[in-house]
Design goal:
- This protein is an alpha+beta fold and 186 residues long.
- The protein folds into two domains: 1-126, no CATH class; 131-186, no CATH class.
- The chain is 30% helix and 23% strand.
- The strands form two sheets. The protein has a four-stranded antiparallel sheet with strand order 1-2-3-4.
- The model has no long low-confidence stretch (mean pLDDT 85).
Length: 186
């Protein structure tokens, strides 16, 4: 066995240690993704998705390159290991089987957002407590195609973000309270 020293990179994730804690980021991965898509010189976006986006499957949609779309969304899913802004990625991943130009435009907006903050990641700070805190939110009938709600949650242990997810609920909720309750129960 060889001692290779402290961990610096692991599967494209940079690990930086300091007195404050451990910082995980995928800056190089983001920059390589932007270079591959020729978006290093593009104008950056301030958010990964527009509010009230209403993305859906339409009968008259203009199809886009399915292989390219699936490859880009797959790379964005891998990027979500160190970035908690996963809602936009979960939205575009719903259209992997039949993407349109509008869906590809949303993927490009996510890439422009990544350009504005390529080094963003997760900091695990040293804290003197181990409290567990959880936060959840759900939108009622957020998906315009099937009226299903979308829930998102964050879990903190000792003040550090350790778990997050954004997912469409399996059942149609009849009210916003029911959507919130189902999200919390899940």
């Amino acid at each position: 066995m060889n001692d290779l020293g402290g961990l610096k990179y692991f599967l494209g994730i940079k690990v930086a240690r300091s007195k404050q804690g451990i910082f995980l980021s995928q800056r190089k991965y983001v920059l390589n993704l932007l270079a591959e898509t020729e978006m290093l010189d593009c104008k950056s976006a301030d958010s990964p998705i527009v509010q009230n986006h209403h993305l859906a499957m339409h009968l008259n949609q203009v199809p886009t390159n399915k292989d390219r779309y699936q490859r880009l969304v797959g790379r964005l899913i891998y990027l979500s290991h160190t970035r908690p802004d996963t809602y936009a990625v979960s939205v575009v991943s719903q259209f992997m089987h039949s993407p349109s130009e509008a869906h590809m435009g949303m993927v490009e907006r996510i890439l422009r957002y990544l350009k504005s903050s390529p080094g963003r990641g997760i900091m695990f700070s040293k804290n003197d407590h181990c409290r567990i805190e959880g936060y959840i939110d759900a939108d009622w009938a957020g998906n315009i195609t099937d009226c299903q709600s979308i829930s998102g949650y964050f879990t903190f242990v000792g003040g550090n973000l350790v778990n997050w997810q954004s997912k469409k609920q399996k059942v149609v909720a009849l009210s916003s309270a029911e959507a919130e309750y189902r999200g919390m129960a899940k």
